[in-house]
Each structure stands twice: as structure tokens, then as C-alpha cells.
Amino acid sequence: MKKTVSTFKKAKNNQKLSMVTSYDYSMTKILDQAGIDGILVGDSLGMVALGYENTLSVTIEDMVHHTKAVARGAKNALIVSDMPFLSYHINREDTIKNAGRLIQEGNAHAVKVEGGREILDKVEALIKAQIPVMGHLGLTPQSINMFGGFKVQGKSKSQIEKLIEDAKLLEEIGVFAIVLECIPEKIAKLITEKLSIPTIGIGAGRYCDGQILVVNDMLGMYSDFVPKFVKQYKNLKMDIEEAIQNYIEEINNGSFPEEKHIFKIDEKILDEFE
Ligand code: KIV
Ligand code: NA
């Protein structure tokens, strides 16, 4: 069944939502056919697919390019595309244009932006332009230089108050869901109970309305840094290493390719060349 932002809103208090990131066509096709509710073309792209140290170098061009590939692979999942660093901070016009590219060229159904009160007028502009918006609070990786690193958020009284207020503000302005990243479970539970839109947790415990993980993390394909909240459902790094080692060995000892992998030619035609 095709998932929409209405599917997401209706899931609140009824059904848990499953999300995962993706950056290309082949992976997306597998995720979609497995029945995932939502696919985020995350700006984590910068780290897991492009090899940057953080997400700050990702451009709107990068996001459009990868969103196109992902959208071609999905039939049923809701496609959300991340707005990269500084693409929604300058003014409302630029924000709408940039988000518009993710929708119009990229074929995403919705965009995600990091932050609360600081970007509220931009979120409002997007929603007025009929672009569905997913919020993102807590450890928002585009603010890494302000936080001084990837650190759990929402631990002090002032941080908790700000988180709750920002979640409320985003809900009031009309976002259809909010990602909560790296905050204590009890704070995520509190926020989830206060909202009538779904929360999607990553490192935010068991009481969110849904969960999201970076696909390379959960499949064990990205080992530069494995956060505490990641569960590795597979160790594909090991499987891939083993497959590649077998391949190298078989090339060297002549056991690949086999007869079934080759193309043949009519011997009579060949005779003319021998
Ligand atoms: O870019 C990303 O992968 C994300 C998720 C971790 C929520 O923003
Ligand atoms: Na992101």
C-alpha cells in the first residue's frame, strides 16, 4: 500500500512507523519491497556515501541527485528528502526554491529540516507552498559546531524546556512528523505524549511513534563510527569482504568464470579467423 503523509499522521497511537535512510536506486528497491513505511534521503549521505566527516559539506545538488535515484526505486514508501546545511536558513524564497527542487526534480514527497524556533518562518513558508515538512530536534547534526560534537541532547532543564517548546511550535505550524535524535528515552516519551503528530526516534528510546536508522549502520556496512543506539541487523561488511576475497581467489586460480558464464560462437565462423 502506498504510504503518504496522511498514513503517517493516522499512525499516531495506532501503528508504529518504520523508516530507514537510502541514497541509491538498488538499495531503495530492496527496502521498499521489504515493506518499509518511509525512506529518508538523509544528508547522512555525506558521511556514509560520500566519505565526509560530517553532514555540513552536502549540497542541494547532491541531495537532488540522490533523491532522484531513490525515488525511482520506491513504489510504496513515503520519500522524505533532507534539506542540507544552509539551504533553508537564508530567506523564505531560497528555502521554497531549494525544497521545490527536491520535490519537482527529485520526486520526494516531503522534506526534512533541522531545528525549531530558529527556522519556524521557513517551515511556515514551505507548508504554505504545499510542501510537507518533517521536523528534526535533539541532536541535529548540522549544528555540530554549535554543540561541540555529536553529543546526547535534552539532558538539562533548559534544553528539555526548549525541546518541548520547539516540538509544540513545529506541530502548530503544521509539520506532519518530527524526528527526535539522541535524547533520553523519558524526554522522548514526554514529547511523544504531548504531540498529536508522530515522533520518529533515533537514539530516542522505545516510546516514539516510529524509528529510523541509517541503512549502512543497521546493515553493518559503515564502521567509521557506530553509535550506541544502532542495532546491527546484519554484518554486511563481513559478508562483502568474504565475497570479494572469494572472487579475487577464483580469478587467480582460474575457477571464475565457469562455462555457464561464457558466450559461444558458431565454430564455422570462427574457422575463418584461426
Ligand atoms: O541524515 C540522516 O540520516 C538523518 C537521520 C539519522 C534522521 O537525518
Ligand atoms: Na539528516
TrEMBL record:
Role played:
Catalyzes the reversible reaction in which hydroxymethyl group from 5,10-methylenetetrahydrofolate is transferred onto alpha-ketoisovalerate to form ketopantoate.
Report residues binding Mg(2+).
D43, D82, E114
Q: Which organism is it from?
A: Garciella nitratireducens DSM 15102
Identification of the protein by name: 3-methyl-2-oxobutanoate hydroxymethyltransferase
The UniProt annotation places 3-methyl-2-oxobutanoate binding at: D43, S44, D82, K112
High-level lineage: Bacteria, Bacillati, Bacillota, Clostridia, Eubacteriales
Q: Name one GO molecular function term.
A: methyltransferase activity
Q: Which pathway? A: Cofactor biosynthesis; (R)-pantothenate biosynthesis; (R)-pantoate from 3-methyl-2-oxobutanoate: step 1/2
The catalytic site is made up of E181
Q: Which cofactor does it need?
A: Mg(2+)
Report whether Electron transport shows up as a keyword of the record: no
Q: Which residues cross the membrane?
A: none
Could you give a single Gene Ontology term from the biological process aspect?
Answer: methylation
